[in-house]
Amino acid sequence: MSYQKQWGFLKRNFEGGNLAHAFLFSGQDIASIKNFTREFIKEINLAMPQADRMIDLGIFPDLLVVKSSDSPSSIKNEKDMMEISIEQVRDAQGFLSLKSYYGGFKSVIIENAERMTKEAQNCFLKTLEEPSGKTIIFLITSKPDFLLPTIFSRCQQFKFFKRGSEDILSEDKKFFEDITRVIKMDLAEKFAYSKNINLEGDNFSKILRNLEKYFRQRLLAKIGLPKYGGGNHTLEKLKKILKLIESLSYQSSMYNINQKMALEILLLEL
Hints:
Largest sheet: 5 strands, parallel
Strand order of the largest sheet: 2-3-4-1-5
Structural class: alpha/beta
Number of helices: 12
Radius of gyration: 20 Å
Strand content: 5-15%
CATH superfamily of the largest domain: P-loop containing nucleotide triphosphate hydrolases
Number of strands: 5
CATH topology of the largest domain: Rossmann fold
Distance between the termini: 42 Å
Helix content: 40-55%
Order of helices and strands: HEHHEHHEHEHEHHHHH
Number of domains: 2
CATH class of the largest domain: Alpha Beta
CATH architecture of the largest domain: 3-Layer(aba) Sandwich
């Protein structure tokens, strides 16, 4: 089992009857965090007949998984709109209000929780603060900064790092410093940067992640949270840049796009 420290803490709290009702799991290896979450839900349902097999098959009646790809807008448009709607949150609230089929925990997993709209997050606050009965909620995200501070305050937080996490954090810090420098370049310098930068491996994704962090902070500053620093971009410009970054991130994960060209397009907007 990966993430032994997190597993041990959760299991001790469960066995001692001190398990929190809402968790925020964050990290870059989302697939591993999802597997970890499902394994823990199996652990707290060991007494239920064949719970582990039903969870693996996605048919366990006391577990609801919320995904952006299941949102009404996505079904209507036949594609993943990368948005978790307020309707989905209300469905999850209705699910949690029902009695457990097996008399155990009712569990909800919100995958890519940062995709919840602002309205969806606000709608979910009361459920996170005052859950009904034996319920447990897991928010999984690789972008915790995209969640409202009020969501953070209502969840017990766990960070999931890969091996060598100190090296990863150091590399991310360097990328962030480089990006803040690139933003101030003129067009010729930006194109030279795009031409010479190494985009092998996960480097393109790292650049997009750090750009998201940077412009998310600028956006928060614009809407009245000055601790995130200033910036010269308008609110609409910041929204446009963030939307473009999110789109490129999605396309690069789903398709074999020309990363150099994608980076050049993005740099033109900065």
